[in-house]
Write a structure and sequence with these properties.
alpha/beta; five-stranded parallel sheet; four-stranded parallel sheet; 9 strands; 37% helix; binds phosphoric acid mono(formamide)ester
């Protein structure tokens, strides 16, 4: 950390990648690189957020995001409160706004929120003094996922500009896809989307990416292939005949992997559905960087908490 000189950061909240400039995205990635180095030391803790309190307010389930925000805050020496909807006064009818105001009254400085409703973090950010960090809102955005994905791509490929990145799967219902499209196009990557036509509509081309329903073409010259699971929890109609048919037509298997560039990396935000969007063997192979993404999530979330939480 000693050699790292941060620029001025003026954002209280991180609600969407679309709000960030390319320079701000790079600032988060550079800050995360400094924190990754801290994570490799024997003593992994720094006092940057000592005296501050972070609340994890997760109204949807999570393994990676919730736990890495908790560990990130602890490594920055913040106090941490975890709230699960099922054990809170949500069950008695308390609103999201009243819950957040209550947490702020308990001196929360940062509220990390995951909610099934798109716009919930924006709603809170405009009503609270506390910093609000979006940990995934409906099918809208998952900004820290896109930042950790970009960090991993930059680490593995030494650049993002000019890379061909293919995102494959359920694009329509994916907040990860929307945040990744915004970030990767802002940093100059060429983004291709592919999957069933019902889940990859041409309307996504308006965000500066290419849409093709031909998976072999989509993966053939990609430097990065990012797979997405089917978001059953957000789908209200059947988008394809069966899981078996989806796997046969769009799953990444050994035959399809043979069509890719030998140095193309395979990414997945998790949780993965083995044997559906990705063969188990590929998920566990050297080509996959899925667990590197998880590891990098910690440094990226430390960077976001540090910048938005006014760390020193
Ligand atoms: N990628 C991701 O958001 O995973 P979790 O749902 O486990 O947090």
């Amino acid at each position: 950390m000693s050699a790292f000189k941060p620029h001025r950061w003026s954002r209280k909240d991180l609600v969407a990648i679309r709000d960030l400039s390319a320079a701000e995205i790079v600032q988060v990635l550079d800050t995360a690189a400094a924190f990754k180095e801290v994570g490799e030391r024997t003593v992994k803790k720094v006092p940057s957020l000592r005296g501050k309190t972070m609340v994890n307010l997760f109204i949807e389930p999570s393994t990676r995001t919730r736990n890495s925000f908790e560990l990130a805050a602890k490594r920055l020496s913040a106090d941490v409160i975890n709230i699960a909807a099922s054990a809170s006064s949500f069950t008695k009818g308390e609103t999201l706004k009243d819950t957040a105001l209550t947490l702020q009254a308990l001196s929360a400085d940062i509220i990390v929120v995951r909610h099934k409703a798109a716009g919930a973090p924006h709603f809170l950010a405009s009503r609270l003094r506390a910093s609000v960090i979006n940990a995934g809102d409906g099918a809208h955005e998952h900004p820290t996922q896109a930042l950790l994905d970009a960090f991993t791509i930059r680490e593995k490929k030494q650049r993002i500009k000019g890379l061909k990145v293919t995102i494959l799967g359920d694009i329509l219902y994916s907040r990860v896809a929307r945040s990744n499209i915004a970030l990767l196009t802002a940093l100059g990557a060429e983004v291709t989307l592919s999957g069933p036509s019902t889940l990859v509509p041409h309307q996504f081309e308006q965000f500066g990416c290419r849409v093709t329903w031909d998976i072999e073409e989509a993966i053939g010259d990609a430097d990065v292939i990012s797979l997405l699971r089917i978001q059953h929890e957000r789908q209200h109609r059947t988008a394809f005949p069966s899981i078996g048919e989806y796997t046969a037509m769009f799953g990444l298997n050994k035959d399809r992997l043979a069509l890719t560039k030998p140095d193309a990396i395979i990414m997945h935000p998790g949780p993965i559905n083995r044997g559906v969007e990705i063969d188990s063997e590929i998920a566990d192979s050297d080509r996959a960087v899925i667990l590197d993404q998880v590891t990098n999530g910690l440094a990226v979330r430390m960077a976001v908490l540090f910048l938005c939480g006014g760390g020193s």
